[in-house]
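Field reference: sequence -> structure
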Amino acid sequence: MSDVAVAGVMSLALYHGSRVGDLKHLDAECFDEEAPFGPGLYMSEDQDVALTYARDQGALYRVCISGSVLGVIDLCLPWESQSYLALAAAIRLFMMAGLERPRNFLGDQARDSLEVCGRAVGKRARNQFLAKQGIWLMHGVLDVVEVSGTADRGVQYLLVDTRCVERLQIVRSVRGVW
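Structure field:
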């Protein structure tokens, strides 16, 4: 992983494959509601993984992002291992969704709790709420049912707050790969 954490700031350089070959800016309203972790900008450490999403008409982008280490949720860890900001955002999310937290909430995997809230209020509303609470990035391994061949191996990153993009740079255009 190409990350740097300095004074509580995490900076990452990741890859995004898109069917759009000339992205100039990111529009959160265009993100897919039904994507595995909900709408947002999906990225990978692996160029080949990102490239598979470009298909035969788009481009591979290098995306440099930066934000507070406290505003990151690791979907594979329990809430007791997350930052206080992430934990507080999750508690507020349950309240906003009108849901009671499970008895073992602190020991629950973050992904499971977020899925419950996503079903209650919708994935877009959930991710927008988290962004307003200071969460800018979620990451984790896709479940088996979400894996689509070699495209989704390894950790995926989901940027829910596009204000954290420092640079969006085309690495290469894709024509006729598929």
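Note: The chain has a mean pLDDT of 85.
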